[in-house]
């Protein structure tokens, strides 16, 4: 395996970054990514779908980030405010990796029935980049539904990273791999570079009309 080298991560220092995981086999790679961001002194918050928690433990990310990990939309971890809104506002960048075929479909159709898609829905993509890193078996990646959803999501202003090619967990070789951690970090660095830092959100304003 080629030696992994970290891109320069200085731009991440002090920046609020949300990492969302959905339930793909490549969840194991995200420990490396989150650890590198934490070491770069980014403020990393991890969100996981229920399926993602079957591949890697939330405890891993809690330990790596020193912060609570969000695994459902009903438990208010840090505040009594609608946390999906306050979390989304605080994000200077969001990276959903791995992003499953199912998650692509949910985002493309505006569904918000898990904590990852719900917080994503609260992010203003005109100011806060949202990067999706699809990861799946080659046949799933080539499905018309997947390709249609990727096209829709790009039109909707998401940054969709091209999956890598190579060995897949289904013991075949093909397109659909999650890019390696240094490549994911490089995408984070490039998205943050030249973006003015977002000031910390002020006190919550009333948001509900009834
Ligand atoms: C062992 C195993 C590995 C899986 N790997 C992937 C994967 O790499 N990519 C993918 O899109 N779905 C994968 N799936 C299917 C998803 O876990 C399933 O569609 C799930 O509903 C996704 O939920 P989520 O998008 O809410 O996380 C896998 C399922 C299993 C059982």
Your description of this structure?
It is a single chain. The protein has 210 residues and is α/β, with parallel strands linked by helices. It has a single domain, classed as Flavin prenyltransferase-like (Rossmann fold), CATH 3.40.50. The chain has eight helices and eight strands. It has helices spanning 30-39, 58-65, 83-90, 101-108, 115-121, 138-142, 144-155, 181-192, and strands at residues 16-21, 43-48, 69-70, 93-99, 130-134, 159-160, 164-168, 172-177. It has a six-stranded parallel sheet, with helices on both faces. Helix 1 packs parallel to helix 2 (58-65), helix 3 crosses helix 5 (115-121) and helix 4 crosses helix 7. It is globular. 40% of the residues are buried. The site of flavin mononucleotide has 16 residues, from helix 4.
**Unreliable residue stretches:** 203-210
CATH superfamily: Flavin prenyltransferase-like
Helix content: 25-40%
Secondary structure category: alpha/beta
User: How do the strands line up in the largest sheet?
Assistant: 3-2-1-4-5-6
Which small molecules are bound?
Answer: flavin mononucleotide
As an assembly, this protein is single chain
| Main sheet specs | 6 strands, parallel
Q: What is the overall silhouette? A: globular
Total strands: the figure is 8
Tell me what the CATH architecture is: 3-Layer(aba) Sandwich
Distance between the termini: 57 Å
Output the CATH class name. Alpha Beta
Mean pLDDT: 90
Secondary-structure element sequence? EHEHEHEHHEHHEEEH
Topology-level CATH name: Rossmann fold
Total helical segments = 8
Q: Roughly how many Å is the radius of gyration?
A: 16 Å
Beta-strand content bin = 15-25%
Domain unit count = 1
């Amino acid at each position: 395996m080629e030696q992994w080298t970290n891109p320069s991560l200085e731009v991440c220092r002090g920046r609020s970054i949300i990492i969302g995981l959905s339930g793909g086999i490549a969840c194991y790679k995200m420990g490396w990514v989150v650890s590198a961001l934490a070491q770069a002194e980014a403020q990393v918050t991890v969100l996981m779908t229920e399926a993602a928690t079957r591949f890697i433990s939330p405890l891993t990310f809690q330990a790596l980030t020193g912060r609570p990990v969000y695994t459902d939309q009903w438990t208010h971890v840090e505040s009594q405010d609608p946390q999906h809104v306050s979390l989304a506002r605080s994000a200077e960048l969001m990276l959903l990796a791995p992003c499953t075929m199912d998650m692509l479909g949910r985002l493309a159709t505006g569904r918000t029935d898990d904590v990852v898609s719900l917080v994503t829905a609260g992010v203003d993509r005109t100011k806060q980049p949202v990067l999706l890193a699809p990861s799946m078996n080659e046949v799933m990646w080539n499905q018309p539904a997947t390709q249609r959803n990727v096209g829709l999501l790009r039109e909707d202003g998401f940054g969709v990273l091209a999956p890598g090619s190579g060995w897949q967990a289904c013991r075949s070789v093909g397109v659909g791999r999650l890019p390696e951690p240094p490549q994911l970090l490089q995408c984070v660095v490039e998205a943050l570079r030249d973006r003015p830092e977002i000031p910390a959100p002020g006190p919550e304003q009333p948001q509900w009309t009834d």
